[in-house]
Design goal:
This protein folds into 2 domains: about 160 residues, no CATH class; about 130 residues, Heat Shock Protein 90 (2-Layer Sandwich). β1, α9 and β2 form a beta-alpha-beta unit. It has a 5-stranded mixed beta sheet, with helices on one face. With about 400 residues, the protein is α+β, with helices and mostly antiparallel strands. The model has no long low-confidence stretch (mean pLDDT about 80). Helix content is about 65%, strand content about 10%.
C-alpha cells in the first residue's frame, strides 16, 4: 500500500512558488553569482543553474511535514549549485530548509544540525586556509557559517522559545485545573458542613414537634394536649430562631458574627431535651478544649439526644464527656428499642454527620447496640489550639 505524504502547509507552498519565480526572474536577467571562467564551475551552461533551483524549491513544501528529507535533498541540490553558475535564490531557499529542519524536525535533529553545521563552518575556514596558505581561505568558513550555521542556530533559538512558551502554557493550564479542583473540593466541603449544621440545628426541634403533635392527636386529654402544644410552640420558636440565625450567617458571609455553640451550652441543651420528654443525666468534665473539638462534641451530643428522642425506648439517657490522655471521650447511651419501630422516621444522615465531624478532627466514631443500650461513642483528639 503506497505511503501518502501529509498535505503541505499553505505557507510552505507559497514560499516554494515565490522562490521559484524569483529564481527564474534572476536567471532570465542573467544575474549569476559566478562566471563561466571560475575554476569551480563544471557546468557553465545557463540551464544547469535551473536544476538545483527547481529541486530546492520543490523541497520547500516538505519543510514542516518532512524536514529531514527536505534538508538532505536540498543539500545535494546546493552542492550541485556550487559547480554551476548558481543562483542566489537557491542559497536563500537552502538556508530556510536548514532553519525549518531545526525548528520542525525531531529533537535529535534539532540538537545535531547546529553541531554539524558548526563543525563544517570550522573545517570550511581552517582547512582551505591551511592548504592554500592564504587567509582568504577563511572566507569559505564564513560563507558556510552564513548559509548553514546561522539559520541552524536561529531555528534552535526559536524552537527553545516555542517550547518554553508551550511549557508555560501547560503549567498555566495545570495551575488552572488544580485551582478549579481546589474550588470544587472547597465548595463540596462547605456544602457538607452546611448540611451538617442545618441538620443539627433543625432535626431536634422538628423531631420534638412531630412526637408531641402525635401525642396531642392520639390522647384525648386537654391537659396533655395543652402541654404538648406548649412543647411544640417552644420548639417551633427555637427552631425558627436558629434557622434565621443560620440564614443571616449565610447572607452576610465573612462579616457575620460567629454563632458557634460551645460545651458551656450542654446544660441548656440537656434541659431542652428534658423539656421534650427525655430522662437525661449529664456527666461532663471536658475541661478547656479547642473550639473545633468543642463544636464537634456539642453537635454529637445534640444529634444523639435527637436520635434518642426519635428512636429510644423509655428510660434514662446517659451523656458522658471526659478528658483522658489528650483526647475527649464523648459517650451517649440510651435504652435500645430493638425491633420496635421509631416514633419518628429517620434518614440516617445524623449518624453520617457525626462520623464526619469526628473524622475531620482525626478522631473515631462508633454507634450501635450494646446489650440493652444504644451507644454512641466518639474519641476526639484535643490538639494544641485556641481553647473555648
Amino acid at each position: 500500500m503506497p505511503v501518502r505524504l501529509p498535505r503541505p502547509h499553505r505557507d510552505d507552498v507559497l514560499i516554494a512558488v515565490g522562490g521559484l519565480f524569483g529564481g527564474l526572474l534572476l536567471w532570465a536577467l542573467g544575474l549569476f553569482p559566478r562566471v563561466p571562467s571560475d575554476s569551480l564551475v563544471l557546468w557553465p551552461q545557463r540551464w544547469a543553474a535551473l536544476v538545483p533551483l527547481v529541486v530546492t524549491a520543490a523541497c520547500e513544501p516538505l519543510r514542516r511535514t518532512r524536514p529531514r528529507i527536505g534538508l538532505l535533498v536540498g543539500t545535494v541540490a546546493l552542492t550541485v549549485d556550487t559547480v554551476t553558475l548558481g543562483s542566489i535564490v537557491t542559497v536563500v531557499l537552502y538556508t530556510d530548509l536548514v532553519y525549518a529542519a531545526v525548528l520542525y524536525g525531531s529533537p535529535a535533529s534539532a540538537r545535531r544540525i547546529p553541531w554539524i553545521t558548526g563543525l563544517l563552518t570550522v573545517i570550511g575556514g581552517v582547512v582551505p586556509a591551511a592548504l592554500w596558505r592564504d587567509p582568504q581561505g577563511l572566507l569559505i568558513g564564513v560563507a558556510v557559517g552564513v548559509v548553514a550555521l546561522a539559520p541552524a542556530e536561529t531555528g534552535w533559538v526559536v524552537r527553545n522559545h516555542r517550547e518554553a512558551a508551550e511549557a508555560a502554557r501547560l503549567r498555566a493550564e495545570q495551575t488552572a485545573l488544580l485551582a478549579e479542583m481546589d474550588r470544587v473540593q472547597a465548595v463540596t466541603a462547605e456544602r457538607a458542613r452546611m448540611a451538617r449544621e442545618l441538620h443539627d440545628l433543625v432535626a431536634g426541634h422538628l423531631s420534638a414537634i412531630a412526637i408531641h403533635s402525635t401525642a396531642a392527636l392520639s390522647i384525648d386529654d386537654p391537659d396533655t394536649s395543652k402541654q404538648a402544644l406548649s412543647v411544640i410552640r417552644e420548639n417551633s420558636v427555637d427552631g425558627l430562631a436558629e434557622m434565621r440565625r443560620l440564614i443571616g450567617i449565610l447572607r452576610q458571609g465573612d462579616d457575620a458574627p460567629a454563632a458557634t455553640p460551645t460545651l458551656d451550652g450542654l446544660t441548656a441543651l440537656v434541659d431542652g431535651a428534658r423539656a421534650n420528654g427525655l430522662d437525661v443525666r449529664l456527666d461532663a468534665d471536658p475541661g478547656r478544649v479547642p473550639v473545633p473539638v468543642g463544636l464537634a462534641a456539642y453537635r454529637i451530643v445534640q444529634e444523639s439526644l435527637t436520635n434518642a428522642l426519635k428512636h429510644a425506648a423509655r428510660g434514662r439517657v446517659h451523656v458522658v464527656l471526659k478528658r483522658s490522655d489528650g483526647v475527649l471521650l464523648v459517650r451517649v447511651s440510651s435504652p435500645y428499642a430493638g425491633a420496635d419501630g421509631p416514633r419518628v422516621p429517620g434518614s440516617g444522615t445524623g449518624l453520617v454527620g457525626m462520623r464526619e465531624r469526628a473524622t475531620l478532627l482525626g478522631g473515631s466514631f462508633d454507634a450501635g447496640p450494646d446489650g440493652a443500650l444504644w451507644t454512641v461513642s466518639a474519641t476526639l483528639p484535643v490538639t494544641e489550639g485556641d481553647p473555648e
